Amino acid sequence: MEPISPVFYLIPGLGADERVFQSLQLQGEVHILRWLLPQTAEEPLPRYAARLAAAIPINQVCWLVGVSFGGVLALEVAQLRPLSRVVLISSFTGPHELPWAGRLARATGLYRLVPPRLLPRLPRVAKWFFGIENEQDYQLLKDILRDTDPDFTRWAIAQLLQWPGQPITPAIRIHGTTDRLLPTGTRNSQYRLPGGHLIIISQADKISQILNQLAAGDTAEDATELVTDVTQWLG
């Protein structure tokens, strides 16, 4: 019997799209779950996740790969698709992993006062926060920020900061060692790659290797056993 080809569902980060995955080389069937417009400004995250999950057959064994805010959605979608295995890239599992500024914004609601279009107008600030180191990646970041829908951004930030988390959902985690947006994620991750928040772009080759290696396992338990510190595994 020939091995079953793995199926990947990729969820980009806040405001991003399929462009962040353009350098991945995955061995299997690949689908990108593109962002949907919220039905209302207050649509709760579980309901949104259910709409996103509609693209995945309920009996399909698959890998849910979420980047940043996409990781939050991957954890929520996994509640509805029990045969899925979750990989978080530059993401987190609950508010306890937010940096102090995020916890303050969550507690006070100050995030409601920040204009959604502020970051696209400050590309050099965004470059520093996202850990961009070359001009090509910087141009891609500027293009993504420029194309971000402000209403979606406002909704997503509110949902992200109000999210109670899914810390008990099994997940394999990949994180940048110099991530300025979610710095605590490094110590909670099995794979630690050099770079900032956008390692999905800057470390696409290594992330492809990791995902393909994980997908070679027959079960989530087999895949988890393959996890080693990337500094040893990749050299």
Task: Provide structural commentary.
The structure is a single chain. This protein has a six-stranded parallel beta sheet, with helices on both faces. The longest helix has 13 residues, at 135-147. Mean pLDDT is 81; it is low at 218-235. The protein is built from ten helices and six strands. The chain has 235 residues and is α/β, with parallel strands linked by helices. The chain has helices at 45-53, 69-78, 100-108, 123-130, 135-147, 150-162, 199-202, 204-215, 220-225, 230-233; strands spanning 7-11, 29-32, 62-67, 84-89, 171-176, 191-193. The protein has a single domain (7-233), classed as Alpha/Beta hydrolase fold, catalytic domain (Rossmann fold, 3-Layer(aba) Sandwich), CATH 3.40.50.1820.
Shape: globular
Kindly state the mean pLDDT as a whole number?
A: 81
Distance between the termini: 34 Å
Low-confidence stretches: 218-235
The helix/strand class is alpha/beta
Number of helical regions? 10
Q: In angstroms, what is the radius of gyration?
A: 17 Å
By CATH, the superfamily comes out as Alpha/Beta hydrolase fold, catalytic domain
CATH class: Alpha Beta
Q: What pattern of helices and strands is seen along the backbone?
A: EEHEHEHHHHEEHHHH
Which range does the strand content fall in? 5-15%
Determine the oligomeric state from the structure. single chain
Q: Assign the CATH topology.
A: Rossmann fold
How does CATH name the architecture? 3-Layer(aba) Sandwich
Number of structural domains? 1
Domain AB hydrolase-1: 10-206
Pfam families: Abhydrolase_6 (PF12697)
Organism: Hymenobacter frigidus
Protein name: AB hydrolase-1 domain-containing protein
